[in-house]
Specification:
With 321 residues, this protein is an alpha/beta fold. Helix content is 37%, strand content 24%. Helix 2 runs parallel beside helix 10 and helix 3 packs parallel to helix 4. The chain is elongated, with a radius of gyration of 23 Å.
Length: 321
C-alpha cells in the first residue's frame, strides 16, 4: 500500500476543511496537530485552498495535507503546485484520474456504485472515497458491497460525526473517515482554534475507544492467586474463572499466578484499533515492548505492552472484540 495511504490509515480521521482565509491555515493546522489529528483535506471549494495548502506545507510540516473536491485537471495542477500530498475527488472523473497518474500524485477517487468500484480496480486503485457515506447507505452498504471487492478499502465521507465514527473505523475495510465536525467553516472563520483542538481530541478518543478492560494483580504463586481470587468472589459475588497462568474474579480483576509484568501487576486498556492506537501513542512519545506482542491465529495483533510502567503497573493495549 502507498505510504500516504498507510499514514492516513494510521491516523484514521481526515478533517475535511473549507477555508476562506489563508491566514487561518497555519493556526488551524497547529490545532489539528495538537488535537492528535496531523492531517487535513483542504477542499477546493474556495479560492483560498491553494494558498492554505502552501502555507501549511511550509509552516506546519508535520501535518499531512491533501486537496479535496478536486474536479478538474487545472485544480490537480494547482494542488500539486501548492504542495498537496494527495488528492481526493467526489466522483470518478477519468480525465482527473489519468492526469493524477501522469503527474505521479496519489488520488482517492469518489465511488458509490459497484460500477464505480470496478472502474477503480481496473485503474489500480487500492482505496476509494465513499461519498456521501450516510446518504448512500452508510456502513451497512459498505459491508454489503465490499464482499465482491476484497482488495478495496474505503474512506467514507459525508454524515460522519462523533456518534458514528467508531462504528465505521471498527470495520477492517475502512481505511479512514473524512469529516468536518471538528473543524467547521464557521469555527475556522471565528478563529476558535482551542475549541477545534478540543474537538479533535474528543474525535480521537471516540475513534480509538480507550477504556480500562481489567486490572492484573501479581502474586507470588498459584496458591496465593487462588486464595485472593476466591476471597474476591466470596465477598463480592464475582464469578471465578481459572486459566493456566491466572484467575479472573469477575471480568475486571485478574490474579496472576506468578510475578508477571509490572512491579504490582498490569492494567489492560482496550481500544477499537490496536494499530491506530499504537501510532497515536507513538506520536506522543510512548515506546512499546515489541517482544510482548501477541497475535491471533490469523496473524492480527491482539496485545502489546508499553515499555514504561505507570505507578508500578505495566500497561498493555488489547484489541476490543
Amino acid at each position: 500500500m502507498h505510504d500516504i495511504l498507510e499514514a492516513l490509515g494510521n491516523i484514521g480521521i481526515v478533517p475535511v476543511i473549507k477555508i476562506d482565509d489563508e491566514e487561518k491555515a497555519v493556526p488551524l493546522a497547529q490545532a489539528l496537530m495538537s488535537g492528535g489529528i496531523p492531517c487535513a483535506e483542504i477542499t477546493f471549494r474556495t479560492t483560498q485552498a491553494e494558498a492554505a495548502i502552501r502555507r501549511i506545507r511550509a509552516e506546519v510540516p508535520g501535518v499531512l495535507v491533501g486537496a479535496g473536491t478536486v474536479l478538474s485537471i487545472a485544480q490537480v495542477d494547482q494542488a500539486i503546485h501548492a504542495g498537496a500530498q494527495f488528492i481526493v475527488s467526489p466522483g470518478f472523473n477519468p480525465k482527473v484520474v489519468s492526469h493524477c497518474i501522469e503527474r505521479g500524485i496519489l488520488l482517492i477517487p469518489g465511488c458509490t456504485t459497484p460500477s464505480d468500484m470496478e472502474r477503480a480496480l481496473e485503474w489500480g486503485f487500492e482505496v476509494v472515497k465513499f461519498f456521501p457515506a450516510e446518504q448512500s447507505g452508510g456502513l451497512d452498504y459498505i459491508k454489503a458491497i465490499a464482499a465482491p471487492f476484497p482488495t478495496l478499502k474505503f474512506m467514507p465521507t459525508g454524515g460522519i460525526h462523533e456518534g458514528n465514527i467508531a462504528r465505521y473505523l471498527a470495520y477492517e475495510k475502512v481505511l479512514a473517515c473524512g469529516g468536518s465536525w471538528m473543524a467547521g467553516a464557521d469555527s475556522i472563520k471565528r478563529g476558535d482554534f482551542p475549541v477545534i483542538m478540543t474537538l479533535c481530541k474528543e474525535a480521537v478518543q471516540n475513534a480509538l475507544g480507550f477504556s480500562v478492560v481489567h486490572w492484573g494483580i501479581n502474586t507470588e504463586n498459584a496458591e496465593e492467586a487462588v486464595q485472593a481470587a476466591q476471597l474476591f468472589c466470596t465477598l463480592f459475588g464475582f464469578s471465578y474463572k481459572e486459566g493456566p497462568g491466572s484467575i479472573f474474579a469477575g471480568d475486571a480483576l485478574e490474579l496472576m499466578k506468578f510475578l508477571g509484568f509490572g512491579k504490582h501487576g498490569h492494567i489492560a486498556i482496550g481500544t477499537y484499533s490496536l494499530p491506530r492506537a499504537i501510532h497515536y501513542l507513538e506520536r506522543q512519545g510512548i515506546r512499546f515492548n515489541q517482544d510482548s506482542i501477541k497475535r491471533d491465529p490469523q496473524g492480527a495483533m491482539t496485545l502489546i505492552y508499553l515499555k514504561e510502567e505507570i505507578a508500578g503497573f505495566a500497561v498493555h493495549l488489547v484489541q476490543k472484540k
